[in-house]
Specification:
Number of domains: 5
Strand content: 15-25%
Largest sheet: 5 strands, antiparallel
Number of strands: 20
CATH architecture of the largest domain: 3-Layer(aba) Sandwich
Structural class: alpha/beta
Distance between the termini: 98 Å
Helix content: 40-55%
CATH class of the largest domain: Alpha Beta
Mean pLDDT: 82
CATH superfamily of the largest domain: P-loop containing nucleotide triphosphate hydrolases
Shape: rod-shaped
CATH topology of the largest domain: Rossmann fold
Strand order of the largest sheet: 10-9-13-12-11
């Protein structure tokens, strides 16, 4: 354990032999005593110098000790004179002469009349509260012919000057012991307080915010280096940085005037914005000063972004890259080249493509190739939500914004995507009112939650997509023209699958591998049939169809007949976006009679239900309301007439 140094006490007195009187205390453990002669010229200044020299408590034996205590506070202890001490001095004075002048502080409760009758002497009482009143009283006593002076240091000087006998009032050991005990308690409390203060100052110095403390007069008590750095304040002589010119902006002047706190106020100093909280410092209900906490707005934005990122739900991650976009056709090579060119920039990108063409995959690729790749990728399907719900999902809502609103409110996807990318899919289905709010956020980079009143800054890149042609919606006044140009600064068009049939084999790599199959299991007629089909559902439809075929194979390497029949059933069931002149594959066996069509329809229904049931035939049969054997016959094309 560290060794605790002894307390340092200064004893200030007018008694020359005070070291001898206090000899029994000078060797006591735990403290040291050093003696100084009381200064009548500048007593307060002399006391302050002793404290500045590191003495922890000053012990005064002087009638003026009380006035110094009032000025300096608790670092001063007065060695009290008791009535017994005074009576002892008066008894000594009586031996010299019966007419005695006694100096008494005006606050002392001393019964002079009782002592006169007790000792049989005449006492002239000199009541004083300052050096001037003491000097005047002594002069009057000498002029009136008092025989003996009883008192302290000034009385001794006056008596010596005028050749009058003098008796000094000396303290007893009990009073000295009480004063030392009090001094030790004060010194210990000061050390504990200083240690706590040092710890507090050490913590405040480490604050990422600027901290400025002032006393009730506005003088700086403490400031950390961050405050000087933020406010661009240099050293100002020995007193440290001068913040006085910023007191008004920091609201210190106002807080010192009315004692009311100012919290989270945005102020501008040197052209830069800061968030300032200034609080009154009160002790025992009395205003003792103020403390200002100064935060850089940019740092707050960064912290808010980190908080948003830490609180965002899992899943706001982009999984695909430009390299994952399958296709070697000229149109797809051009698309990938443009995506790489657009990705590093913050400009908004509008992706146009039919349903199932891979718009979100392209959006994720743009995000992962951008400087925002480490931050959230948040996707919202604007067509999947009603307009009233879409607004709160996009912008969030404040507590109590509507019935059923979550306590504390809820951040919207704009906040969740802070520092990252927000992908608005099917934006053509967004209502005009929501479009207006979206446009304002894109222009100001700030939002207000539904039902809220606080402005929240956001830093995001917006990618949007639609299968509907936005220029046509603009002409029909169903989409804001100004928002369209804001969203479509850069534009990417994904060609439909029917325009790039050569890419079909590349698009099937993953699903064939997943089911243990390969391209060798696809015959030339099967590939040709897929190239000739229009694929109104694009890549999504292609993969769903091939997965259905692979499930129905039941472990066989290939079955061209099954493949062609299944494709025909899909082509009959779809309503492609292309015109009716788009060629379709011919029926594999040339059968177009009613019986064949009904057989295909039954198989198609059974196949779809099997797919929805995860390949579980018993579950599919139960859902169709038929027996397991009947389902098997339908799937295996076994005529019921043969059963």
């Amino acid at each position: 354990m560290p060794i605790t140094p002894p307390y340092r006490f200064a004893v200030v007195t007018h008694i020359p032999n005070m070291p001898q009187i206090m000899r029994s205390f000078t060797d006591a453990p735990g403290f040291t005593l050093e003696f100084f002669t009381f200064s009548y010229q500048h007593p307060l200044l002399a006391a302050q110098r002793l404290l500045d020299q590191g003495y922890e408590v000053i012990l005064y034996y002087s009638s003026l000790g009380s006035s110094i205590l009032n000025e300096l506070g608790r670092s001063v202890v007065v060695i009290q004179k008791t009535d017994v001490d005074i009576i002892k001095a008066l008894a000594e004075a009586k031996k010299i002469a019966p007419r005695i002048a006694l100096t008494v502080n005006k606050d002392d409760n001393f019964d002079t009349s009782f002592v006169e009758s007790l000792l049989g002497v005449r006492i002239m009482e000199i009541r004083f509260d300052s050096l001037d009143s003491l000097s005047d009283g002594l002069s009057i006593a000498i002029a009136e012919g008092m025989d003996v002076l009883v008192g302290g240091g000034m009385s001794a000087a006056m008596a010596k000057k005028n050749g009058i006998p003098f008796v000094r009032i000396e303290p007893d050991l009990h009073s000295i012991s009480l004063a030392i005990a009090q001094a030790k308690a004060i010194a210990n409390a000061q050390r504990v307080e200083r240690e706590s203060l040092d710890k507090l100052v050490a913590v405040l110095k480490l604050f990422r915010e600027g901290v400025l403390c002032v006393n009730e007069q506005g003088a700086t008590v403490f400031s950390n280096s961050k405050a000087a750095e933020l406010l661009k304040v240099g050293q100002f002589g020995k007193s440290g940085p001068d913040f006085s010119r910023h007191h008004q902006a920091l609201m210190i002047s106002d807080v010192l005037t009315d004692g009311e706190p100012r919290e989270d106020c945005v102020v501008k100093i040197h052209g830069e914005q800061f968030v300032v909280t200034t609080l009154p410092v009160s002790v025992h209900s009395g205003l003792q000063g103020a403390v200002a906490f100064i935060s850089d707005v940019n740092a707050i934005h960064n912290m808010a972004g980190q908080l948003r990122e830490s609180q965002r739900p899992d899943g706001f991650v982009a999984h695909f890259r430009v390299e994952d976009i399958r296709g070697e056709s000229p149109a797809m090579l051009r698309l990938k080249r443009m995506a790489r060119l657009y990705a590093p920039h913050n400009a908004a990108v509008w992706i146009h493509g039919e349903t199932g063409s891979g718009k979100e995959l392209l959006a994720q690729s743009l995000h992962n190739a951008s400087p925002r790749a480490r931050h959230p990728f948040v996707a919202v399907n604007c067509a999947a939500l009603p307009e009233s719900l879409l607004e709160s999902e996009l912008f969030g809502y404040a507590e109590g914004a509507f019935t059923g609103a979550k306590r504390g409110g809820k951040p919207g996807v704009f906040e969740m995507a802070h520092k990252g990318t927000l992908f608005l899919d099917e934006i053509g289905d967004m209502g005009l009112e929501t479009q207006s709010r979206l446009l304002r956020i894109l222009e100001t980079k700030e939002l207000v939650r539904v039902g809220g009143d606080r402005v929240i800054p956001v830093d995001i890149r917006v990618l949007s997509a639609s299968h509907k042609p936005l220029p046509q919606l603009v002409r029909e006044n169903r989409f804001r023209r100004d928002l369209f140009y804001r969203l479509a600064a850069l534009r990417l068009h994904i060609p439909p699958l029917r325009e790039r049939p050569s890419d079909i084999p590349l698009l099937l790599d993953d699903i064939l591998r997943r089911y243990g199959s390969s391209h060798q299991d696809l015959t030339a007629p099967m590939l040709q049939a897929m190239r000739e089909y229009s694929w109104p559902g694009n890549i999504r439809e292609l993969r769903s169809f091939v997965e259905s075929y692979l499930i129905l194979l039941g472990g066989k390497p290939t079955d061209q007949t099954l493949f062609m029949e299944l494709l025909e059933s899909w082509s009959c069931d779809q309503e492609p976006d292309t015109d009716e002149n788009t060629p379709r594959p011919a029926m594999p066996h040339g059968e177009a009679d009613l019986k064949s069509q009904l057989t295909l329809a039954r198989r198609d229904i059974a196949t779809r239900m099997l797919h929805e049931s995860g390949g579980n035939k018993r579950l599919a049969a139960s859902r169709l309301g038929i027996s397991y054997n009947t389902l098997w016959r339908i799937l295996e094309n076994v005529s019921e007439d043969k059963t």
